[in-house]
Specification:
This protein has one helix at 10-16; strands spanning 2-7, 24-27, 32-34, 41-42, 51-54, 59-61, 66-67, 76-79, 82-84, 91-94, 99-102, 107-109, 120-123, 126-130, 136-137, 140-143, 148-158, 161-182, 188-200, 204-210, 216-226, 231-243, 250-254, 261-269, 275-282, 287-294, 299-306, 314-322, 325-333. With 334 residues, the chain is mainly beta. The chain folds into three domains: 2-10 and 147-243, Immunoglobulin-like, CATH 2.60.40.770; 24-143, no CATH class; 250-333, Sandwich (Immunoglobulin-like). Strands 1, 17, 18, 19, 20, 21 and 22 form a seven-stranded antiparallel beta sheet that branches. It has a six-stranded mixed beta sheet with strand order 4-2-5-8-11-16, with no helix packed on it. Strands 3-6-9-12-15 form a five-stranded mixed beta sheet, with no helix packed on it. A hairpin with a 4-residue loop joins strand 21 and strand 22 (231-243).
């Protein structure tokens, strides 16, 4: 019998991807708020190098001077909701290589008055939009833009194969994707090539099978190549594929994101009289919680995360160990 679990670890993406765009920051999904306020965002207000998304239905307001021009990494802003310069004289200064995308349904506006160039967006010191240019609705882009906007990259076990699944919400000049695989997370080999959608502003779903997966933990990364040959590595995940008769528990965390409380559940644990270790790490790899549960019979095991754990909002990794095997899951605490 084949059993496996998918390990989604943000710190592995940071360590092993050749290209990094900092933290993925989204508006809070509950209406938005001022750009410079942490409560307007998940997990916090944007910083240098971040990839930023204003969700549909959220209004982010520019009420202070936002100067990122000295940042060493580009920033990318995607607007599905509204970005409003609602205070007179405000500027959003982005570093070189940055881009702003207004998606279909999104809006860039200025209700703060002043006229002319009083409110403006600059990229690498060059003015790309000012109040007098008027409202901008999608689809429209300023500056450099990411060749794809990746929504997810995940894996499932399908009998004797690993099924890789990913989705994009936008593509620009995207020729094809490449799936690569590694046993150690450092040395990668070709698995498959999948055609891209060229230019698209709608959700595109992709899948590709690895029919000869490696036993144990292996790493898959997603590479994107433009029509002009330029490429970048956009995401990485680890998959635990085991061929066992004795099996291991299956780890689930729900609901995820965890708002107020959630459950860590280990299901289908077939081995009696074995010990289960459950650990919780923050995004920097610091252990926050450690639980040990002896099993006296075959059963499911559940733990709960709630406000009593004193967890700050952010991204955490839940790791479970049983029968000498490890698996992990990413959980967002709000």
């Amino acid at each position: 019998m084949y059993k496996a679990s998918t390990i989604l670890t943000s710190f592995l993406i940071f360590l092993f991807c050749n290209v990094s765009y900092g933290t993925i920051v989204t508006s809070n999904g509950t209406g938005g708020g001022p750009w410079g306020t942490d409560a307007s965002w998940d997990p916090a207000a944007p910083a240098c190098g971040d990839t930023i998304t204003i969700l549909a239905g959220d209004l982010i307001t520019v009420e202070s001077q936002l100067d990122y021009s000295a940042c060493g990494s580009p920033m990318f802003v995607t607007i599905f909701g509204t970005l409003d310069f609602n205070t007179n004289g405000m500027k959003l200064r982005l570093p070189c290589g940055s881009g702003v995308i207004i998606e279909v349904g999104g809006l860039l506006t200025s209700t703060g008055g002043g006229g002319g160039a009083n409110n403006q967006i600059t990229i690498c010191g060059v003015e790309v939009w000012r109040t007098s240019d008027g409202d901008v609705s999608g689809y429209f882009a300023f500056g450099d833009v990411l060749p794809i906007t990746l929504m997810n990259f995940d894996a499932e076990i399908d009998n004797t194969a690993v099924k890789l699944i990913w989705s994009t919400s936008a593509e620009l000049n995207n020729d094809y994707f490449t799936i690569e695989r590694s046993e150690n997370g450092l040395d990668f080999e070709f698995v498959a090539e999948v055609p891209g959608s060229g230019n698209s502003t709608t959700i595109k779903n992709y899948e590709q099978y690895d029919d000869s997966p490696l036993t144990g933990t292996s790493y898959y990364r997603l590479k994107q190549t433009d029509f002009d040959g330029k490429f970048e590595y956009v995401d990485l995940l680890a998959v635990n594929f085991n061929q066992d008769d004795d099996g291991i528990c299956t780890l689930h965390v729900y609901p995820n994101p965890c708002v107020g409380g959630c459950t860590i559940n280990l299901e289908d644990c077939p081995l009696a009289d074995s010990q289960v270790d459950v650990e919780l790490y923050d995004a920097l790899g610091k252990k926050i919680v450690n639980r040990v549960s002896p099993k006296s019979k075959d059963k499911d095991i559940s733990f709960h995360l709630n406000s009593s754990n004193n967890l700050a909002p952010g991204v955490y990794i839940v790791r479970a160990s049983t029968n000498g095997k490890n698996q992990a899951s990413r959980v967002v605490v709000k």
